[in-house]
Write a structure and sequence with these properties.
The protein is an alpha/beta fold and about 300 residues long. Helix content is about 40%, strand content about 15%. The chain has 12 helices and 9 strands. It binds N-carbamoyl-L-aspartate.
Length: about 300
C-alpha cells in the first residue's frame, strides 16, 4: 500500500492518498451494486485473512470491518472482547498476542486497545498490517477517513469549511484524527466547543498551528453553530475519566432549538455511540448525517483492505 502498510495515525495521510482512498471507496460502492461486480469482489481475496482484535467495546468499527472483509472475500478470525477472552486475561503481552496471530497467517490485524500507542507497539512486531481501530485517547484514523469522505459527499469540498467539533475533545480520539486530516486542506477553521477541562490537546493545536489551520476554543455552542458548515459531536468518554460524575454533563445537547441557529446547508456528524448529546428528535432533519457516516465507512474500510492486500 502507498501508506507503507500499517495504518496507525491520520498523520500518515496526505491529500493525494485521501483522494485515492475516497475514489477507491466510490468504485467499490459502484461495483457492489451489480451482481457480477459483487461476485468478483467476493472472491478477490480468497486465502487472505483478517483478524479483528478488539480489547474495547465496539459496534460500528468492528462490524464494518467484518462486513467489509466478507464482501471482499477474506476469511476472518474475530476476538471480540479480547481483554477477557484472549490470553491477555492470563497476562500475555500485546506484542506476544500479535506474534501469535502473525504465525497463524493473518494478513491484516484490526486492533482496538485502551492504551494510547498500542497500535505502534503492535506494528513493531507485526508482519501483518496493523490497522489502528482506536488506541485509547490517541487516534482513530479509519474513522477520520470515513468522516472526511462524508464531509466531501455533503459539501463537495474539504477546504474553506468552518468545522465545529464538540464534546469530550480531551479524551475522544475521533476528533483528534479528524482535526489532523482536515488540517491538510487550506482555509479550514475549527471551532472547538467544550468546557475548559475537556478541551482539545496541545499536540493537536500545535499541528494546526504548523499547518496554518485556524481554530478557536469556546463553550458557546450556539454562537459557534451560527456560521458552521460541519458540526462534529462526540460523547463524554466516561471510561477514560477518573471521576465522570465530577464533570457537568448537560451542557452541549444538539436539539431542535440548537438547529434553529444552524445554517441549512450544515451537516451534523457524530462517530456514535451517542449517549444523550444528540436528541433523537432531530434524526429526520436532513442535516443529520451520523447514520450515513456508517454507510460511507463500510466502503472506506473495504478500500483500505483492498489497498493493503494489493499494495496499491
Ligand atoms: C468512537 C470510538 O470508539 O472512538 N466510536 C467509533 O468508533 N465509531 C467514538 C466513541 O466511542 O465515542
Amino acid at each position: 500500500m502507498i501508506l507503507g502498510m500499517h495504518i496507525l495515525s491520520a498523520e500518515q495521510f496526505g491529500t493525494q492518498e485521501i483522494e485515492g482512498i475516497m475514489l477507491h471507496a466510490d468504485e467499490l460502492r459502484e461495483q457492489i451494486e451489480n451482481r457480477q461486480g459483487r461476485r468478483e469482489l467476493a472472491t478477490r481475496h480468497l486465502g487472505y485473512g483478517l483478524c479483528n482484535l478488539f480489547y474495547e467495546p465496539s459496534t460500528r468499527t468492528r462490524m464494518s470491518f467484518a462486513f467489509a472483509l466478507k464482501k471482499l472475500g477474506l476469511h476472518d478470525v474475530e476476538t471480540e472482547n479480547a481483554s477477557e477472552f484472549s490470553s491477555a486475561s492470563k497476562g500475555e503481552t500485546l506484542e506476544d498476542t500479535i506474534r501469535v496471530i502473525n504465525q497463524l497467517g493473518a494478513d491484516i490485524i484490526v486492533l482496538r486497545h485502551p492504551e494510547t500507542g498500542s497500535a505502534v507497539k503492535a506494528a513493531s512486531v507485526s508482519k501483518a498490517a496493523i490497522i489502528n481501530a482506536g488506541d485509547g485517547k490517541g487516534e482513530h484514523p479509519t474513522q477520520a477517513l470515513l468522516d472526511v469522505h462524508t464531509i466531501k459527499k455533503n459539501h463537495e469540498r474539504l477546504d474553506n469549511l468552518k468545522i465545529v467539533m464538540g464534546g469530550d475533545l480531551k479524551h475522544g480520539r475521533t476528533v483528534r484524527s479528524l482535526a489532523k486530516l482536515m488540517s491538510n486542506y487550506p482555509n479550514n477553521h475549527i471551532s472547538f466547543v467544550s468546557i475548559p477541562e475537556l478541551q482539545i490537546g496541545n499536540d493537536i493545536k500545535l499541528r494546526l498551528n504548523e499547518t496554518g489551520t485556524t481554530y478557536d476554543e469556546t463553550s458557546d455552542m450556539l454562537g459557534a453553530f451560527q456560521d458552521a458548515d460541519v458540526v462534529y459531536w462526540t460523547r463524554l468518554q466516561k471510561e477514560r475519566l477518573e471521576n465522570p460524575d465530577a464533570v457537568p454533563q448537560d451542557g452541549f445537547v444538539i436539539n431542535a432549538a440548537a438547529l434553529e441557529v444552524l445554517p441549512n446547508h450544515a451537516s451534523i456528524m457524530h462517530p456514535l455511540p451517542r449517549v444523550g448529546e444528540i436528541d433523537p428528535g432531530i434524526d429526520n432533519d436532513p442535516r443529520a448525517q451520523y447514520f450515513n457516516q456508517v454507510g460511507h465507512g463500510l466502503y472506506i474500510r473495504m478500500a483500505l483492505i483492498d489497498r493493503i492486500i494489493n499494495k496499491l
